[in-house]
Amino acid sequence: QVQLVESGGGLVQAGGSLRLSCAASGRTFSRSTMGWFRQAPGKEREFVACINWTSAWTYYTDSVKGRFTISRDNDKNTVYLQMDMLKPEDTAVYYCAAAAATSAGILIKDNYYDYWGQGTQVTVSS
After folding, report:
1. Helices first, then strands: H and E counts in the chain
2. Are the CB atoms for 45 and 38 separated by under 8 Å?
């Protein structure tokens, strides 16, 4: 059974930092693109960032560029999202996602991802 388990969410003041982790089990994703999405109350789920299997390519939505950094450790089957200079508008449930396809590049649309975590809440107070 494939599982993606996010951790690291919480409550932080504006300007603060959080580091999200997503640990995968049940299969290896060392050759798969992995991504982070988020969903704020009353809004649709949106793409945040993704990273290809070699870590050579990363891509971010405009609103987080320069503040968030995605990385991965294939030996640990884990992907991370370092979030700095957090803003109240970053408040959302953050989801980790993994594609079943191997050797893919940048994947922005959520329908390219086959496996999803349960989400972790990030709340940024002003």
Report:
1. 0, 11
2. yes
Residue 102 scores a pLDDT above 90: no
Q: What share of the chain is helix, strand, coil (3-state, %, to 5)?
A: 5, 45, 45
Burial of 6 (0-12, 13-18, 19+ CB in 10 A): buried
For residue 40, give the DSSP letter: -
Q: Are 94 and 48 in contact (CB under 8 A)?
A: yes
CA distance linking residue 122 with residue 115, whole number of Å = 21
Spatial CA neighbour of 7 closest among 108, 77, 78, 109: 78
Distance CA 15, CA 111 (A): 32
- Looking at every residue in the chain, the average pLDDT score rounds to 96
Question: What distance in Å separates the CA atoms of residue 79 and residue 62, rounded to the nearest whole number?
Answer: 20
Where do we find the tokens 């940048």?
Answer: 106
Query: Which of 54, 4, 19 is CA-nearest to residue 33?
Result: 54
Tokens of 54: 């070699």
